[in-house]
Design brief:
Layout lengths: L1 E5 L3 H12 L3 E5 L3 H21 L4 H9 L1 E4 L10 E4 L5 H14 L5 E4 L6 H5 L4 H4 L2 E6 L8 E6 L5 H13 L3 E5 L7 H17 L2
Parallel strand pairs: 1-2, 1-4, 2-3, 4-5, 5-6, 7-8
Antiparallel strand pairs: 6-7
Length: 206
């Protein structure tokens, strides 16, 4: 399966890495070739540390890195089976990427977003109605290469079969998926918020 990731920052680059480690060809997109070069160098460092710890065999690490193709044009995503949007957490930035992908990718392509705060159904509104059934949230946790949890969040229009397919795919790439409704903060951030409030109360009470 060919996967795409848009956004070569800390999260996006490592999302590409976990797909590559699972044997999938991956296109990693960013507008800047310099950003892509830094991302690949950072991933090489992650793999080197993993080899030193015995997490990866050297041959497997080298093969995974070779499966990641850096691209500066979104048009390269045209034949991907799944594309994950992992740009910074701003509604307009994500909307711009989703609109562009909607024009470029095949109707069968699944779109996933790594948002941690924005409602999936709000982001789905930037896609054509036909595309919304194949749009879903996959919220990874940092560092993606080591954290197993992924929240799989269906929007109001997400097809149940697509959610099942993505859940199975997350297991295939070595993650532990948890299905979550499209509610503010999803599950983990909601629990974290409660924890932080309790911590503040403990400080206030001495």
């Amino acid at each position: 399966m060919k996967a795409g990731v848009v956004g070569a920052g800390l999260m996006g680059a490592e999302i590409a890495l976990v797909f590559a480690l699972a044997g999938h060809a991956v296109l990693l997109h960013d507008r800047s070739a310099e950003v892509l070069d830094r991302a690949i160098a950072r991933l090489r460092g992650v793999l080197d540390k993993g080899v030193a710890r015995g997490t990866y065999a050297r041959e497997a690490a080298d093969a995974a890195l070779a499966r990641i193709g850096p691209v500066t044009s979104l048009d390269a995503m045209c034949d991907c089976a799944i594309v994950t949007e992992a740009v910074y957490e701003a509604l307009e930035a994500k909307a711009e990427v989703l609109r562009a992908l909607d024009r470029i990718c095949a109707p069968s392509c699944i779109f996933a977003t790594n948002t941690s705060t924005l409602p999936i159904s709000t982001l789905a509104a930037f896609l054509t109605p036909e595309r919304r059934v194949r749009f879903i949230g996959t919220h990874y946790f940092s560092p993606v290469s080591r954290m197993q949890l992924v929240e799989v969040i269906s929007g109001f229009a997400t097809d149940a079969a697509v959610a099942d397919q993505v859940t199975a795919l997350m297991r295939d790439i070595g993650k532990q998926p948890v299905r979550v409704r499209d509610v503010a903060g999803f599950a983990v951030n909601r629990m974290l918020h409660a924890l932080l409030i309790e911590a503040v109360k403990l400080v206030e009470e001495g």
